[in-house]
Write a structure and sequence with these properties.
0% helix
Length: 115
């Protein structure tokens, strides 16, 4: 019933930029924070950026100053602007939304940073 769909991933050169988008459909009770996570094979899923309902943001240290998370509540969307991309940013990026008592996940979008 609830779906989160990511888009905007792809192959980009080091130093380049990408903008990820996530649209949420269906009803999420008490939606609060939304965020972006990434994962590579053999490693745990890592939080990249979070944004609270009031607009407060937080980022993993490795992306501070380069990534910006934003949300549009009227459109039920969350975005991640990624600048100055590095090879270590490569991974599958997942959209996340926090409701009452549970979390919702998208299917992910691949981001590859390579020459």
């Amino acid at each position: 019933q609830v779906q989160l769909v990511e888009s905007g991933g792809g192959l980009v050169q080091p130093g380049g930029s990408l903008r990820l988008s996530c649209v949420i459909s269906g009803s999420i009770l008490g939606i609060n924070a939304m965020g972006w996570y990434r994962q590579v094979p053999g490693k745990l899923r890592e939080v990249v950026a979070l944004i609270a309902s009031g607009g407060t943001t937080s980022y993993v240290d490795s992306v501070k100053g380069r990534f910006t998370i934003s949300r549009d509540n009227a459109k039920n969307m969350v975005y991640l602007q990624m600048n100055s991309l590095k090879p270590e940013d490569t991974g599958v990026y997942y959209c996340n939304a926090e409701g009452v008592g549970r979390f919702y996940w998208g299917q992910g979008t691949q981001v590859t940073v390579s020459s």
